[in-house]
Amino acid sequence: MIADLPLWLSIVVSVFVVLGALLTMAGCFGLVRLPNFYLRIHAPTMGTSMGGGLILLASALYFTITRDRLVLHEMVIFFFVTITTPVTLMLLARASLFRDRVEGNDGVPKRPTPTPETDA
Amino acid sequence: MSVEILHWSLLAAQFLLALAMLAATYRMIIGPRAQDRILALDALYVVALLLLVTLGIRTNSQVYFELAMLIGLLGFVGTVALAKFLLRGEVIE
Predict the structure, then answer these.
(1) Number of domain units in chain A
(2) Are B69 and A87 a contacting pair at CB < 8 A?
(3) Residue A114 belongs to a domain
(4) Considering only alpha carbons, which residue of chain B is nearest residue A7?
(5) pTM score, two decimals?
(6) What per-residue string of b and e applies to A48-80 under the rule 16 or more CB within 10 Å gives b?
(7) What is the distance between the alpha carbons of residues A64 and B43, in angstroms, rounded to a whole number?
(8) Contact, B6 vs A13, CB < 8 A?
(9) Is A109 contained in some domain?
(10) For residue B92, pLDDT beyond 90
């Protein structure tokens, strides 16, 4: 860390980083506490959206001020994580639904019956 | 003064993120089914990425950014491959 850090910058970065870490921790505790998989899959997205966004924003702000130039690399990670998380989690949810249907477990919606062909 | 504020808040944030990693690891170990373990692994990847970003602010170096980016890319590919394996029983068909 550098010595002549502006006070407002350290306060803003501190607030963003601690808030982001708190949200991420809340999401991971939800992963432990929630009762079934389809509820649990919602929890860690708190960390990937708001928590990650705040921490990466704090990092971008810190390096922008201390390096005296615009540093936006962190936003690349943010956009990438924001785009890929829904893709992976929807794929995972569909895989889990498929496995539950194959095993005939309760609590999952039945496979929709195909509508009969009208032009037969 | 400002350096102390940043130091202690980064320490608190790293402690919270470490707790989050422990929670995800707990779910990955007990997680009753395979999809729970994969979900916990995905969460663990993201929290490790954020921990590296806070470490980059602490040490005032941009090297950790590249590491965080690499973790983000590999986490996506890994989770998609594991979900595909659950869905089809094969990764590359």
Answers:
(1) 1
(2) no
(3) no
(4) B2
(5) 0.87
(6) bbbbbbbbbbbbbbbbebbeeeebeebeebbee
(7) 28
(8) yes
(9) no
(10) no
Task: Report yes or no: B48 at the A interface, CB cutoff 8 Å.
Answer: no
Confidence of residue B31 (pLDDT cuts 50, 70, 90): confident
- Rounded Cα distance between B59 and B43, Å, is 25
For A81, the token pair is 């994580």
Percent of chain B with pLDDT over 90: 53
Among candidates A32, A55, A63 on the partner chain, residue whose Cβ is nearest the Cβ of B54: A55
Position A43 in a domain: yes
Domains, chain B: 2-88 (1.10.287)
Instruction: Please name which of A87, A56, A77, A33 lies closest in space to residue B40, comparing C-alpha atoms.
Output: A33
Q: Does residue B62 belong to the interface with chain A, where contact is any CB pair within 8 Å?
A: yes
A61 is in which domain, residue-wise?
7-103
- Contacts B41 to A, Cβ<8 Å: none
